[in-house]
Amino acid sequence: MHVRARRSYYEGHLPESELAEWEAAARSRGYTFAGADLIWLCAELDGRIAGFALATDAGELLQLQVDPARWEHGVGDALHRACVEAWRGRGVSTAHLDVFEPNTRAREFYRRRGWREVGLSDGEPVHVRMALAL
């Protein structure tokens, strides 16, 4: 699911060889995140994983991925609301995230939920830094 979602916004913006290399690595070993300060959320529709979110207790949204086949089904919105509720419960006043600059769909998704663009990353590929007052 993560590979399909990631390809949907990087395809056409990154070389195919780079996408293929990342996908092979993701399928063979997956990601490893450890730490007590992480919030893991998973959304399910019809008995299948439809999306997931990974955030820190401090208010950093690391991942919010929805299976492209499940876009426009409320999955992203539900995951986003759950992150916001978790941060508020932990006393976070401002949340942050980075989104791939050409990913206008995601940037608009966050804008509609109150996020504002506050800067750009220095590296390549360029990401937009966004913040949300909680």
Automatic annotation (TrEMBL):
<keyword id="KW-0808">Transferase</keyword>
<dbReference type="InterPro" id="IPR016181">
    <property type="entry name" value="Acyl_CoA_acyltransferase"/>
</dbReference>
<dbReference type="Pfam" id="PF00583">
    <property type="entry name" value="Acetyltransf_1"/>
</dbReference>
<dbReference type="InterPro" id="IPR050832">
    <property type="entry name" value="Bact_Acetyltransf"/>
</dbReference>
<dbReference type="InterPro" id="IPR000182">
    <property type="entry name" value="GNAT_dom"/>
</dbReference>
<keyword id="KW-0012">Acyltransferase</keyword>
<protein>
    <recommendedName>
        <fullName>N-acetyltransferase domain-containing protein</fullName>
    </recommendedName>
</protein>
<dbReference type="GO" id="GO:0016747">
    <property type="term" value="F:acyltransferase activity, transferring groups other than amino-acyl groups"/>
</dbReference>
<feature type="domain" description="N-acetyltransferase">
    <location>
        <begin position="1"/>
        <end position="134"/>
    </location>
</feature>
